[in-house]
Amino acid sequence: MERRKFLGWVGVGVLASSLPVAIAACSSGTDESVADEPPTDGQATDESSSAVAQSPVREDGFQSFGTTEELDKKVTILDKKAGVLLVRNPENKQISAVNPKCPHQGCIVEWDAEEKYLNCPCHSSKFDATGDLLEGPATESLPTYETKEEGDLILVKLS
Ligand code: FES
User: Fold this and answer.
1) pLDDT tens-digit series, residues 4-26
2) 27, 63, 74, 94: which has the fewest C-beta neighbours closer than 10 Å?
């Protein structure tokens, strides 16, 4: 085999063997956005921690994200695809719906049952059960959504 042909085949072989590594490197992002973040409460399915499937948007703009019975048990219900975190305030029992994406750098906040606030696992920003900022480095509160209860369902209006 000629030297030039041999080197050509070696080059193709090196390229083919490194392709999977290059693809894997490109696909293992570190973005902590809502859509990419795995569930954090240990009870979640692929997209929602609620056993009740998210309903379609109704004519009035509301859709359900869980039941009050379920929220009473779990304190929070996360739907990471929709970017909705339902929180039952343990003190006044009010239900809030917040966007769980921390305004600092986008990590998903988690309910701290002991301290009774939403904590960002990345840099420890803290928010109360209604999403109001308690402590930075975040400088803004969590965005909130209008909620209401209808029977046992918790309805949220995203826009
Ligand atoms: Fe939440 Fe930094 S991403 S405090």
Assistant:
1) 665 555 555 444 454 444 444 43
2) 27
